[in-house]
Model the fold of this input.
Amino acid sequence: MRDFITQNLTDMTVLDLETVLLNNVVAIVFALFIMFSYRITYSGIAYSRKFNVTLGMIVIVTTLIMSVISNNIALSLGMVGALSIIRFRTAVKDARDAGYIFWCLAVGVACGVSLYMVAAVSSAAVFLFMLLFRQIGPDSRLMLIVRCDNEAQNRVEASILQHFGKAAKLKMKNATPEVCELVYIVSQSTLARSNERAKVDIVQSLIKAEGVKNVNLVEQSDDIGR
Done:
């Protein structure tokens, strides 16, 4: 047992050039695939090309780390100690971004130890999973914000009820002695159907109403940290 531990702690086997090049080429291919996946499945309003490029870098850097430490326990322990002092303070704004980071790390580890089939099959499964839930996920929710005079409040509520029926839900009503602000939640598909049925856009209809000061239609984001 002592000889086994000593051998593994002192073993400095270096990967041959052909294996290193193959690992990195495959890592680049997977990095491009993950970047493409992130681009086509992103549904937020603040897509970051820099973050997408960073995902590709994570795959390649993780492959480098695994190529260095995969054959030596001492280097593995030293690398864990070195990485433990790093502190990342950049907030992850979308919960899916954290998932993509872990995907990049897993693929980088697999490429670093030449487990290409594992990386390929698992990446295909993750990609199909993302596509599936992107297609069958719930409609985007929109916030319809109307700011009007107090005297026009009842007319605005009646217009919205007539346009959407009960599909639009009043979430907030904020009033002062002069003005009133109404916030409704409505799905994107409901908005499209209602506008088509009424043959008029609800925003244009409300902004022309007497006493209405402004109308805003905003996508309700579920991004973390915003």
